[in-house]
Amino acid sequence: MLNLFLRTILLYLFLLLVLRLTGKRQVADLEPSDLIVTLVIADVGSNAISDPNIPLLYSVVPILGLYLTQQLIAKACLKSDRIRGFVCGTPQYLIKNGVLQEKTLRDTNYAVRDLIEHLREKDVFDPAEVTDAILETNGSLSVRLRPDGVPPTRADCSVPIPNELRPALLIRDGKLCEDGLKDADLSRQAFSNRLKKNGLMPKDLFYAQRGADGSIRVQTFARSGAKVSSLKKEG
Amino acid sequence: MAYLRFRRVCTVLFCALLLALFRLPQQKLKNDAARWTEILQNAKAALLDGDTVRAQAECDALVTSFRAEEEALERFLNHDIVHAVLSDLRQAKALANAGDRSGALLALTAAESDIEQMLCIEQFTWNALL
User: Fold this and answer.
1) Mutate which of A1, A5, A57 to test chain B, going by most B C-beta atoms within 10 A?
2) What is the distance in angstroms between the Cα of B9 and the nearest Cα belonging to chain A?
3) Do B18 and A10 touch (CB under 8 A)?
4) Engineered SS bond to B96: which of A147, A214, B26, B104, CB 3.0-4.6 Å?
């Protein structure tokens, strides 16, 4: 069992090194360490499921080994930036101040065509609109547009910003959500009273949500006609 | 907070489980293998002495002793190797009963080597690790 455990850790570290060396493009939305854990756990688990000659412990020990190693590495990453840099990599500029970074593109195995494709996924069809494009550690691309290409915000147009509330789910699938009521700063009693004023009872509702403007949008059960209504914000 | 506490408790439990798994199966296998090797050597000695009756009794004891532990072994060893040892021991028993001393000796030697292999799986060595 100790052999099995140590082999798992050795293999984990080896896979981590190889995945880091292959560059970020292969990682796609997962940190290298997360990807290894996901892939290896799936493989180890399926071995024990498909082969009845393998004891369950042959899967349990490596999975626990991976879990503990992952926890240790996560803790080490929190403590040291250098370890984090090695395990997760560091974000890299593919476009900086509007200039394509040729060396970084080569180092990360990114062809210009790939970069343009990723920009298109971000609804940017002309690299000239981009000030900075950063390849994140999980393989995704973050893009900062040139100031003249960014749509104006309310603040830019001096439009007054309403004091919006956080939407809170009050009833879902016919059940009262205590967390949502707490978020909306409503007691059960106050909520029931507000419904009663509008001729409703909590048990009649399939769904209720407090919206950003303070109104409550409700929908009755399908057996009661799935009626949707909006209860205006009180005083 | 509750989740974090739960995760911490699980991590401690996992560590304890792993430590137990590093020690207990190895210890059990070591004890059992020592017992089987002793009986196996007795059976071999009896076969070499030409004492077929004693060899039959030793082989019988060996099969019975191994079968008693078969289920426990299969919890932490690949079933193939456990079945291989049992098959060799049964063969040795059958050959000893039939009076085929050299055949029985060969089967016992094969069983001995399989038992050694079982021990290697659980014992930590750099070779086994790599």
Assistant:
1) A1
2) 13
3) no
4) B104
Measured between CA atoms, the residue of chain A closest to residue B18 is: A61
Nearest CB neighbour to B76, from listed A52, A57, A67? A57
Query: Do A69 and A51 belong together in one domain?
Result: yes
> What average pLDDT does the structure give for chain B?
90
| ipTM of this predicted structure | 0.81
Kindly state the tokens that stand for B91.
Answer: 């063969």
Is B18 close to A68, i.e. CB distance below 8 A? Answer: yes
A86 touches chain B (CB under 8 A): no
Q: In terms of domains, do A82 and A121 share one?
A: no
Do the chains contact at A7 and B129, CB–CB below 8 Å? yes
A166-189: per-residue pLDDT in tens? 899 999 999 999 999 998 888 999
pLDDT per residue over A127-163, tens digit each?
899 999 999 887 889 999 998 878 888 888 888 877 7
String of DSSP letters for chain A: -HHHHHHHHHHHHHHHHHHHHH-GGGT-SS-HHHHHHHHHHHHHHHHHHH-TTS-THHHHHHHHHHHHHHHHHHHHHHH-HHHHHHHH---EEEEETTEE-HHHHHHTT--HHHHHHHHHHTT---GGGEEEEEE-TTS-EEEEE-GGGSPPPTTTTTPPPP-PPPPEEEEETTEE-HHHHHHTT--HHHHHHHHHHTT--GGGEEEEEE-TTS-EEEEE-GGGT--EEEEPPP-
A126: amino acid identity, one letter: D
User: Do A35 and A10 fall into the same domain?
Assistant: yes
Residue B24 C-alpha, separation from nearest chain A C-alpha, in angstroms = 10
Specify if A73 maps to a domain.
yes
Residues A129 and A192 in one domain: no
Residue range(s) defining the domain that contains residue A114: 92-149
Question: Chain A: residue nearest B77 by CA?
Answer: A55
In a domain, A159, yes or no: no
Nearest chain B residue to A70 by CA distance is B11
